[in-house]
Amino acid sequence: MVEIVRKGRLPTPEEVPEALRDAASLARRMTLREPRPIGFPLLFSSDMQLIEPAVAFLHEHGIQRAHTVETLRTYTEILYDWFDSLEQSHIQWAEVDTSDLIAYRDRMIRGPSAHTDRPYSVRTINHRVRGVLRFYAWAILAGWLASSPLSAHGQDFSLSRHFWGTGRRCLRDQERSLFALRQFEDLPRPLRSEQARELLAALQPPYDLMARWQLYTGLRVAELVRLNVKDIEHPSRHSAPESSYRVIDVIRKGPKAGCVIAPMSLLDETASYVALHRKAWLQRAARKRAATPRSELFVTRRGSAVRKNTYQQVLSRTGDACGFTVTSHLLRATFGCWMLARLERLAKEGAAINPLLIVKVLMAHEHIDTTDRYLRAVAIDTTVLADVLDTLVPMDSRV
Would you tell me how many other CB atoms lie within 10 Å of the CB of residue 334? Predict the structure, then answer.
């Protein structure tokens, strides 16, 4: 079975046997042009042979191209699953043909995920197939392979990822990869206001405040956990004095600089959390474990920074207890649908605004077609539409 080994730190001479101390000292004095950070993933086969092309691919994208940690993790998961599948089938990676990729795709169609025990979604299957195609296209360009049966389809991996236009629910045949499944567009199904109130009442600090931030600002979960106390204490230069809201500078997906508009009620609640819960948890952690001060806004009761997976698991368990499905992305989608419904009503009443463009900017979407999904979700979900539009009051007083 393929293994992922994380790169560790170099030992000091005192931590190794005496016979190796000179080598340890020499290793620590060596300088590398492109050093891999601690925790960088290294893929090994079952006989502990380094899978060099996979590591080179991750090195180029993670170090040379400086992709985000999330992107590097995604590439690692795709290559791990692909090489593990090849090893179980006793197939050399350089000898793969189209039938092997089709068999890999069909295996995901027939069986559940070994990690979640749930069936693979079409989106996940296509995402992994595109990742494999991307790897083989890169391997030829980088000189690891002279050619590959998959290289003829090397440019197909990007085609089934996007949706064009408002009336099309799936891609045309010529726009779909040979290996990709027919993929329909999933429209977001936002929470109703009573569901949002029930969820927030059931969540414990700091997760209730984190959920409020997503419902009120539309932050992605990765952007949410990156918030620092200084981000909240120092408003953006675009903030208006004596206003009911403040503009908060954040690091968006990419990463790129961006901002969100936060109501003062949310910021007041956040200031109370910082002064009470967060301060007490960090003081207790300092007494028990001599923990160093943290800059992250959201910390756990043990004084450590809230991790994305932990927050998502808490949301899922709390949603199950409340009787409905909750994810961090659903909270962001709920903000988008609620905001768009309110802006559409204002536009119909004569306001000179473009609701779709405003929501695109607020949610930091790269393409307007992504935002258009929220417009269609509001249009077809009459229950949510009536729930939102019948009570056009400030969002923070509704939830």
Answer: 27
